[in-house]
Amino acid sequence: MIETVDERRVDIPKRHSSRGEPLLDNEPATLPDLFRRAVAKHDLRDALNRKHRHEWLPISSHEMISRIENIASGLHALG
Questions:
Q1: Contacts of 74 (CB under 8 A, 6+ apart)
Q2: Which residue among 7, 42, 47, 69 is least packed, with the fewest CB closer than 10 Å?
Q3: Which residues, at least 6 apart from 24, have a Cβ–Cβ distance to it below 8 Å?
């Protein structure tokens, strides 16, 4: 299918028959996969910042992944 985007013609690949499958072979299939790929590509020392007692403290990409996994494990344990 061809779509017009910002006055340019762009070839859009056909969607797979099943809902939820990636459009491209190398495309992340889930949001966690997308996030992990972004962290691997852009390992940031200060991906997020949090305020503690009037001071901004950085949170690295890897610390964010660790916190997200801990939260996910806790939610999974709760059902």
A1: none
A2: 7
A3: 13
C-alpha distances out from residue 38 to 25, 28, 62, 66, 69, Å: 17, 10, 11, 15, 16
Separation of alpha carbons 36 and 77, rounded Å: 22
Q: What average pLDDT does the structure give for the chain?
A: 81
The values of phi and psi at residue 48, to 5°, are -135, 160
pTM higher than the cut 0.90:
no
Residues 6+ apart with CB under 8 A from 1: 11, 12, 14
CA distances (Å), 78 to each of 15, 66, 74, in order? 36, 19, 6
